[in-house]
């Protein structure tokens, strides 16, 4: 026995919205044998745009029963039935949430007529209820009202039962089937195609645009975890509705996946990614020559496409680096923008006072260049050689002079002993302190996979 359900609500997610109308058609597999419909007082204002869509106003539901008063009837109509709806996870999440609030626990199998429509009647331009019904000649005089949509969905379901020559409905109802857990617009084949390997995955919307990028040690397991559970929150419900396609890249190791995820989020700026979007090197150390010919060091906010000597995420770290260089190489604190008053240079030999022109630029600049060389030499250059996507290759990431250079895949037989040759086999990528820190931590954890260049 099937319970075909449609609801109207005050908004798009169950945890902060109420039901304004519910309709249930009990279907015996051949026809509808019982109908139930009622307006519901959601005990909150119905937004104007919702009223414009459904025609249900605050005045219409003012004297209607609240959901807890109809919960007993709703539960007994649904209990031990197969819950059917167009985009079933939306209706089910609302009904289950509000039944639970009234003290009833709903546990039943689900069928989604969107997903079934895509399988049983493939190739249509749209599977929205209105367009699907128009294509199939199903009349619906009360669109966006629960009774009208439930009746139209019942007729659609009867048609799907008749046309299901490949037994998609019985297969979806098998106990081990995850079909109804998937987002309504996502083909099952996209999930089935995922390997159980490390990589990154992309969720695309109906236009093909990437809306989320994620990393995984096991692609199939991680992607499937997005669709588990019954979180009724607004972000998740909207997120699931917009997933229409999945693509992926194999990475060989979890480290490559971590790094590529960070790179791709910055490149694609997906709508539903929150973390890593804002991570940037905040400060950098720059060198430039002033009008008098003196090389000057300065800490400033990091600027893309501008050559810097050193980048970091905090002003404190940047100032600590420049103070160390001033102390070690007797640089002028005024020319390094550390001392900004008009007093004589602090801690500098008077004969080496460059800001007053006592020491000529040539002599002073030698010490500045020596400081820059020392800083560059102190920054490590190393590669991480690890498992590849197949047994015939290895993955490789390169840190050059303390900065992330790039990564790629090399032959199992390639000797990582020449830096320039290695760089020719890798793809350069933009880096930041987050990526550099991940690679450095990995190198510390697995020193046997680290190849150091002198």
UniProtKB/TrEMBL annotation:
It holds the Pfam family GIY-YIG. GO terms for molecular function: 3'-5' exonuclease activity; DNA binding; DNA-directed DNA polymerase activity. Keywords: Nucleotidyltransferase, Transferase. Its EC number is 2.7.7.7. GO terms for cellular component: cytosol. Gene3D superfamilies: GIY-YIG endonuclease, Ribonuclease H-like superfamily/Ribonuclease H. It comes from the Bacteria. GO terms for biological process: DNA replication proofreading; nucleotide-excision repair. SMART domains: EXOIII, GIYc. PANTHER family: DNA POLYMERASE III SUBUNIT EPSILON. This is DNA polymerase-3 subunit epsilon.
């Amino acid at each position: 026995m099937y319970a075909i359900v449609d609801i109207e609500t005050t908004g798009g997610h169950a945890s902060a919205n109420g039901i304004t109308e519910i309709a249930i058609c009990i279907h015996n597999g051949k026809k509808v044998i019982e109908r139930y419909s009622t307006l519901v007082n959601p005990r909150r204002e119905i937004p104007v745009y919702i009223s414009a869509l459904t025609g249900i106003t605050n005045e219409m539901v003012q004297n209607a029963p609240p959901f807890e008063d109809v919960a007993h009837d709703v539960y007994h109509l649904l209990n031990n039935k197969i819950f059917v709806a167009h985009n079933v996870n939306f209706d089910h999440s609302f009904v289950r949430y509000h039944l639970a609030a009234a003290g009833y626990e709903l546990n039943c199998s689900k069928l989604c007529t969107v997903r079934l429509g895509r399988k049983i009647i493939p190739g249509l331009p749209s599977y929205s209820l209105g367009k699907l019904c128009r294509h199939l000649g199903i009349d619906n005089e009360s669109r966006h009202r629960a009774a009208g949509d439930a009746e139209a969905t019942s007729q659609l379901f009867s048609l799907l039962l008749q046309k299901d020559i490949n037994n998609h409905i019985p297969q979806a109802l098998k106990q081990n089937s995850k079909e109804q857990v998937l987002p309504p617009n996502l083909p099952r084949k996209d999930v089935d195609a995922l390997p159980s390997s490390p990589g990154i995955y992309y969720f695309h919307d109906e236009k093909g645009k990437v809306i989320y990028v994620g990393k995984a040690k096991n692609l199939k397991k991680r992607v499937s975890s997005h669709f588990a559970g019954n979180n009724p929150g607004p972000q998740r419900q909207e997120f699931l509705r917009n997933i229409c396609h999945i693509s992926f890249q194999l990475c060989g190791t979890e480290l490559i996946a971590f790094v590529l995820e960070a790179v791709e989020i910055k490149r694609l700026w997906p709508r539903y990614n929150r973390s890593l979007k804002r991570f940037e090197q905040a400060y950098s150390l720059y060198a430039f020559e002033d009008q008098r010919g003196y090389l000057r060091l300065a800490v400033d906010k990091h600027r893309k496409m501008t050559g810097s000597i050193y980048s970091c995420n905090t002003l404190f770290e940047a100032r600590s680096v420049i103070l160390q260089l001033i102390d070690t190489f007797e640089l002028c604190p005024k020319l390094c923008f550390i001392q900004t008053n008009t007093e004589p240079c602090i801690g500098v030999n008077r004969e080496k006072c460059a800001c007053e022109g006592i020491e000529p630029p040539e002599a002073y600049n030698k010490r500045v260049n020596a400081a820059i060389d020392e800083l560059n030499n102190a920054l490590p250059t190393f590669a991480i050689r690890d498992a590849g996507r197949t047994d015939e290759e290895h993955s490789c990431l390169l840190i050059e002079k303390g900065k992330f250079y790039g990564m790629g895949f090399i032959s199992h037989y390639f000797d990582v002993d020449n830096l320039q040759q290695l760089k020719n086999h890798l793809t350069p990528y933009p880096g930041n302190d987050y990526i550099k820190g991940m690679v450095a931590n990995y190198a510390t954890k697995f020193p046997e996979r680290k190849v150091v260049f002198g």
